[in-house]
Amino acid sequence: MDVLVCVKRVPAVGAEILLTADGTAIDTRHLGFTIGPHEECAVEEAVRIAERTGGSAGVLTVGPPETEEQLRYALSMGADHAVRVDTPETDPDPEATAAAVTGALGELPPYDLVLFGEASADAGHAQVGFRVACALRRPVVGGVKGIDLDGDRVLLRRESPEGVEVHEAPLPAVAAVLEGLNLPRYPTIKGRLRAKKAPIRVLDGPGATGGLRTLRLRHRPEARARTVVLGHGAAAAPAVVDVLAELGIVP
Amino acid sequence: MVLVVVERDGDGTLTEDSAEVLAAARDLAESLGVPVGAVAVGEPGELPDDLVKRGVGRLHLLAHELLTDGSPACLGEALAGLVADLRPAAVLAPSTDRSTEAMAWAAAELGMPLATACTEIRPGDDGPWEVTRERAGGVLLEDAALTAPIRLCTLRPGSPSPSETAAADEMTVHVVVPELRASVPRARLVERRERAAGMTLTTAPVVVAGGRGVGSSEGYAVLEELAGLVGGAVGCSRVATNNGWRPHADQVGLTGTRISPDLYVACGISGATQHWVGCMNARSILAVNTDPEAPMVTRATWAVIGDVHEVLPAVVDEIRRRSGR
Ligand SMILES: Cc1cc2nc3c(=O)[nH]c(=O)nc-3n(C[C@H](O)[C@H](O)[C@H](O)COP(=O)(O)OP(=O)(O)OC[C@H]3O[C@@H](n4cnc5c(N)ncnc54)[C@H](O)[C@@H]3O)c2cc1C
Ligand SMILES: Nc1ncnc2c1ncn2[C@@H]1O[C@H](COP(=O)(O)O)[C@@H](O)[C@H]1O
After folding, report:
1. Does B44 map to a domain?
2. pLDDT tier at A89 (50, 70, 90 boundaries)?
3. Which of A55, A130, B89, B236 could pair covalently with B104 via S-S, beta carbons 3.0-4.6 A apart?
4. Is A219 helix (H, G, I), strand (E, B) or coil?
5. Which protein residues touch ligand 1 with a CB less than 6 Å away?
6. What CATH number does residue A93 fall under?
7. Which domain holds residue B210?
8. Which Gene3D superfamilies does the protein's record reference (chain B) (predicted)?
9. What's the pLDDT at B162?
């Protein structure tokens, strides 16, 4: 079975986030980049499916040349081939991203299953996978935490407010997955070396833009009182239990 | 019209999130001088009466077996058809998984943009509307321009304060049987299992969570013990999940679970933004950390500076001593 995973390059932010002077983006001068945890699980799942079925696992990203770093990371995890759809923007509007992915899928050999993250790690629009499925008229299930193959159909498990649901879809299908689907592997040295030399196919982007434009980014206002330090080490235990008693948590 | 996608609980009552979206829709509709309509799936039940009290005079009920047995994409397809007919100024939905997925499909079908996870909507006179949305679960806020003939938005809970509204004069219910094209291959629900009863991370009044500072999977024994004593659940950071110390179901944060317990005890967790968005709605936070400068410590209500494995056993002993257990 041939599986394709769509991944996005995002800044790996820590506890403090600096914004650029014009306030429209994260200041990434001192940051590394990564793919989101949902997408990492999607890559892991694609590699496992390819191994199990003797198929292939591809990865695709939409963005400028530097996003190839993330494709190589996916290759080092065991993906077989990589595609970059060339666009000037690193954080395109979700309509534009979906158009680029849809266009690429029209040019590439067919895939049985296309995997997305439920939401990208930086923008979190939670829509690109559904837009692509709609454009291609493919069945789609989101929030997926379990994938089982069964001949020409796939069983997709997700959680809902009521409990656990299993959806069945005919192939080819689309799924948006969540972290927890599996425990992604760490790349091996051999995988890294292979990924370094692997060719990356580059396709032209459609140059479309969508109707959602970022004006500025802001930190959320925080209203927290100053921290009360209850003490150091084991000696703080009575003060901690006083607090728990005050909260009514212990008698 | 401002059209609101409303969801109902298992027993048929309007969800809290949907009630909040209705309140926001009323404010928006008032400023635009248009009425509010609602759209829901299935039988009317108590919904029309409830909506009238909330100032809604028109309800569209989508009736199709695929809307209960299908995936949210089916709802998206049905919604797109209705929206294309009604041409409302805006469509608002709660930012639950189900509604977000349906709205994403509908937006694609309509060829329009969609702003998800909005906390505020500011209509423009002629030009684009401005929205504020949460990026990455609230790691940052984003002001964005939304340019479209019909503005599609999902709303995060906790935005508006529901004000008193005049009831609508009357209620018109339209039953709409959407045409779901037979040619489209779809996913179908084949099995539904109810969640086992019991305390979960989201319902626990106290969550005792551990991160890298706990050191190993065995290290969580003392967190389990404390959680047991205070009637709480155990949580963890992504480092703990990635190391295989805890199952992913325990993970608090952006790609884990968002929780709002009365007390969050964060042990050996630094407080990275992606973790913080999962616990920032806790009523109070107690941080246990060797580093007094850790962001979790400086943002907590209370802190103990020290090693998890010295502090927690002492706390457990002290609780047992006081309660004579
Ligand atoms: C897109 C994205 C999504 C993410 N989603 C999540 C998410 O959902 N949830 C999540 O948790 N993370 C998430 N992360 C990861 C996040 O950025 C951090 O890497 C992670 O939260 C750090 O976990 P930690 O605090 O346990 O470890 P660290 O950051 O390493 O912190 C360990 C802390 O323990 C303290 N410590 C060490 N030893 C002891 C001791 N003996 N006693 C007491 N304290 C000690 C240290 O002082 C330090 O403060 C995400 C990251 C990305 C990029
Ligand atoms: N620039 C991109 N390139 C490739 N895939 C992307 C890109 N942006 C988003 N995606 C995919 O779409 C999913 C949902 O993204 P979003 O709609 O932005 O939350 C992500 O988890 C990725 O799988």
Report:
1. yes
2. confident
3. A130
4. coil
5. A 12, 34, 36-37, 121; B 211-213, 237-239, 251-256, 268-270, 272, 274-275, 278, 288-291, 294, 307-308
6. 3.40.50.620
7. 206-323
8. HUPs (3.40.50.620), TPP-binding domain (3.40.50.1220)
9. 59
